[in-house]
Amino acid sequence: MRYPAFWQHRGVLSILLWPFSLITCRWAKSRRLKAQNRTGALATDCPVIVIGNITVGGTGKTPVLIALAQALTLRGKKVGIISRGYGAKIGVEPRDVAESLSVQMVGDEPWLIYQRLGLPVVVHPDRVRAASQLRARYPEVDVLLSDDGLQHYALVRAIELVVIDGVRGLGNQFCLPAGPLREPMSTLSKRDFVLINGAPPNLSAPMPANYWPVAFELYEICDLHDDTRYTIDEFIAQVLPACEGRAAALAAIGNPARFFDALRSLGLKLETYPLADHQPVPAELLVHLGRLAQPLLMTEKDAVKWRERKPAWHTQPGQVFAVCGHIPLSPALVDSVLALLDARSNTAS
Fold first, then answer.
1. Cβ-contact 254, 278 below 8 angstroms
2. Who contacts 162 (Cβ-Cβ below 8 Å, separation ≥6)?
3. What do you get for the CA distance between the two ends of the chain, in Å?
4. Measuring CA to CA, which residue among 233, 170, 241 is closest to residue 207?
5. For the chain, N or C: smaller number of CB within 10 Å?
């Protein structure tokens, strides 16, 4: 779903749609209340940390999941990841990314997560089934991270971690379809951790006391022809002068503007091509991109699809680059997650 401009303010259209947003809010509250009153446990004996959001659009969930998985692994945890596998036709049985032959079989985000981490990743729209399959295949795993699924209440979770885009914030603070919220913003106070990704000095809504500021950072740029890797400083010094600081940028993510702004902060003069989240590059756009004189930069998520189906014109180094970024997590945040995980695991046992 695209993020329309009117979701950022309360205008005529959002006010007209406001009665329908009340239905969304009540439905979301009802589902959460039923989940809280339900007894039972996850189909496995493994605690789950859900990384999700309460808004439509990209907020940085996947970089946060990757960073948290790395941090927990360094602390001695055996981490596994489950995901919906958006855009892929999974079928009846969950699919193990390690056994998959292409991005199309599992979706771009699970493929990227597996490539970055090398940890077990299993995908299925039913996250309980994905969790059960992962634990059956990898019994050594002792904590599961769910990529999204905050509103997938069939999956019992030990910890809920919400990621909010610091620039968009909570928009006009209305639920769908009048605004971007999947559920009322009051539910944030009931979540364990709220991460504000790139928070500006003043958000459009007061944040709960359990929030943590984080920020997306670029750290490496990879030539997709021969896998030559540059630090940001090396790219600026060695590649940009040849193209006089001009480049094209492609992003099929939830918030392409965030990616483009990060590139502009490097001093690039950009020609931008935003696409819908997960959208393949249209054939006519591929032809156009092949005629450009300047290099093409794209996100890591777009690059995993490009590597499999790169066009015939991509024959030389210096044409197409993947821009790699991450969201560092503070040791204090990781300590807090681990402490709460241990406390709730002891309570459950």
1. no
2. 52, 53, 54, 150, 188, 191, 193, 194, 195
3. 40
4. 170
5. C
Q: Which residues contact 111 (CB under 8 A, 6 or more apart)?
A: 97, 100, 103, 304
- Virtual CA dihedral for 110, 225, 315, 250, nearest 10 degrees? 50
- Sheet (strand 193-197) strand order: 95-96, 121-123, 79-83, 143-147, 48-52, 159-165, 193-197, 211-214
CA angle 228, 229, 231 (to 5 degrees): 150
Radius of gyration of the chain (CA): 21
Dist. CA 72–CA 68, nearest whole Å:
6
Work out whether strand 229-231 and strand 48-52 pair parallel, antiparallel, or are unpaired: unpaired
The identity of residue 202, as a single letter, is N
Q: What is the pLDDT of residues 259-301, one digit of tens each?
A: 999 999 998 999 999 999 989 999 999 999 999 999 999 999 9
Question: In this predicted model, which residue has the larger pLDDT, 86 or 22?
Answer: 22
- For residue 163 the two structure tokens come to 């990621």
Q: Is the pLDDT reported for residue 208 higher than 80? A: no
pLDDT per position as a tens digit, 52-82:
999 998 899 999 999 999 999 999 999 999 9
Helix (H, G, I), strand (E, B) or coil at 97: helix
